[in-house]
Amino acid sequence: MSYLALFFTLLSLLPIFLLIKIKRSSNSCRLPPGSLGIPVIGQTFGFLRAMKANRAEKWLQDRVDKNGAVSKLTLFGIPTVIIHGQAANKFTFTSDTLLSEQPKSFAKLVGKRNLLLLNGEDHRRVRGVIMPFLKPEVLKQYVGKMDGEIRNHIDVYWQSKQEVTVMPLMKILTFNVMSSLLFGLEPGARRETFLESFQYVLEGILAIPVNIPFTVFHRSKQASSRVKSMIIDLIHEKRLALEKKEVLPHQDLITSLLSIHGEGNEALFSEQEIVENVMLFMMAGYDTSSSLLTLMIRLLAIDPAVHAAVLEEQEEITKSKRSEEPITWEDLTKMKYTWRVALEVLRITPPVFGGMRKTLKDIEFGGYLIPKGWQVLWAANMTQMDESIFPDPSKFDPKRFENQASVPPYSFVAFGGGPRLCPGNEFARIEILVLMHYLVTGFTWKLSDKVNNFTRNPFPVPTKGLPIRIQRKSLL
């Protein structure tokens, strides 16, 4: 080709190059403000340091103050956009253009067919199958069983003790309650083996997913296989028991899922989906409920006024019952102040800091472009500590939740929102209220350690697990 021909060829391609450059320049101008930082690394280390020091909310707020409600940075090797505010929360929980995003280690340990990682129609189908078991009218029948588990826990771990470390005990309690109610695993060696393996699985959720010997992830992967095998054994046992009519269809979560069929009598849940969703519910309830219970016990130790009000409410319930009579659903409906205290704890210190979504395609939000494949970060505390929504947000005030309908939509998102609302929130409410009843009416306690702060890992973890000195008030 002559130089003249080459010149005219390049000249003919010039408009295409100009269009590409203009488009790229236009897209670049439409990206949110902020810096992506050093490639791959970005602001990851700063974010993790802030999480560990329990300053992540301020770390994010500083960026909002500097760049506005929508800004970009790089986290965990991926370009990320922080979005902030009620509209941002609604967009996060309701948009079909955003995929739920979790660490790769989570998908490798749990699987991809669970409610947290499913999207669109699959998410709606699985949620629709699970929700009937977790509705209040169904959970009513499990209050007595939960009451028995909690009384047994107190007998074993609290009675005759002078000091306890709260957080490890709350994890044992939440595991035992879920083992009993979600899949009918009774106390004994089998439950203890399950707990040991389950704890190893949790260690690898945020680990680097490299499956080679002597790594945390390798141990977690092996534990995950054991846990899944145990759940499969339970599924087979319960399927056989259902066929023989030895158990009721809604005796626990597994029997409930096995009993649901479509119009053609086909099973709506595969065995894999049952296994993964049982693991998901165990993980979700294990850390979130134990964190909330620990923080409530901590609060009642340092706030005499709140403690007195909770105690007064719970003692009124005790007066109306016969000795040793278990808590009932009707009793729970009277624990309004205690639950408002729990909600205010969740507002100020949500166990789940926030979450990630990933864009399925180029999308627009707040006048900015968020390219396909980018992450979107939301944080619960960003709206829950917004003084324009919750005046004097640092003040602990359970009255904020006297009329929950007055709380603006998508501003209190401790349980998520919309189609991503936590399906286990009613289950958690029962567990928290029953335990609080027996603790405040049966014991007094004080903090054992003057250091009274906590870090995030990623859930709130009090210093030394929150050791407290306890004194028994009366027989339960």
UniProtKB/TrEMBL annotation:
<dbReference type="GO" id="GO:0044550">
    <property type="term" value="P:secondary metabolite biosynthetic process"/>
</dbReference>
<dbReference type="GO" id="GO:0004497">
    <property type="term" value="F:monooxygenase activity"/>
</dbReference>
<feature type="binding site" description="axial binding residue">
    <location>
        <position position="422"/>
    </location>
    <ligand>
        <name>heme</name>
    </ligand>
</feature>
<keyword id="KW-0349">Heme</keyword>
<keyword id="KW-0503">Monooxygenase</keyword>
<comment type="similarity">
    <text>Belongs to the cytochrome P450 family.</text>
</comment>
<dbReference type="InterPro" id="IPR017972">
    <property type="entry name" value="Cyt_P450_CS"/>
</dbReference>
<dbReference type="Pfam" id="PF00067">
    <property type="entry name" value="p450"/>
</dbReference>
<keyword id="KW-0479">Metal-binding</keyword>
<keyword id="KW-0560">Oxidoreductase</keyword>
<dbReference type="GO" id="GO:0016705">
    <property type="term" value="F:oxidoreductase activity, acting on paired donors, with incorporation or reduction of molecular oxygen"/>
</dbReference>
<dbReference type="GO" id="GO:0005506">
    <property type="term" value="F:iron ion binding"/>
</dbReference>
<protein>
    <recommendedName>
        <fullName>Cytochrome P450</fullName>
    </recommendedName>
</protein>
<keyword id="KW-0732">Signal</keyword>
<feature type="signal peptide">
    <location>
        <begin position="1"/>
        <end position="28"/>
    </location>
</feature>
<keyword id="KW-0408">Iron</keyword>
<dbReference type="InterPro" id="IPR002401">
    <property type="entry name" value="Cyt_P450_E_grp-I"/>
</dbReference>
<dbReference type="InterPro" id="IPR036396">
    <property type="entry name" value="Cyt_P450_sf"/>
</dbReference>
<dbReference type="GO" id="GO:0020037">
    <property type="term" value="F:heme binding"/>
</dbReference>
<dbReference type="GO" id="GO:0016125">
    <property type="term" value="P:sterol metabolic process"/>
</dbReference>
<dbReference type="InterPro" id="IPR001128">
    <property type="entry name" value="Cyt_P450"/>
</dbReference>
